[in-house]
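name: query_chain
kind: protein
chains: 1
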Amino acid sequence: MDLSGETNEALIGRIVSLTQTINDLRQSMSLSGALPPDWRLTPKERDLFLALVRNEIVSKQMAVVVLYGTQDRETTHSVDVFMSRIRHKTEKHRIKIETINRTGYRLVDRLVWAKTLKLDTPVEH
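structure:
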């Protein structure tokens, strides 16, 4: 991404926006419960699953920020890989993650799962 033509004010605006996005995502992942250890989710998979519990829809760009702390759009394929792994590890527990075409992902019955897993109640968005 070439930012050489951006003004200082525009760059500062980008930084403020990205900082707010990262803070919002960190807050959305700060659920107090622990996921079942037999799911064997890696820390990044866990963070992504918790973002699904906390948010009605997790866009691919949001998932990239959760996973990598950046909004690099070239890494969205890895989001698909992470979602596939999460689905595989949780499918025997009847967890269903829907793909929303060209948008992102949604955890089916997320409020039920939040209660079942004894996680803090998600904030509605």
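note: The first strand starts at residue 58 and ends at 59.
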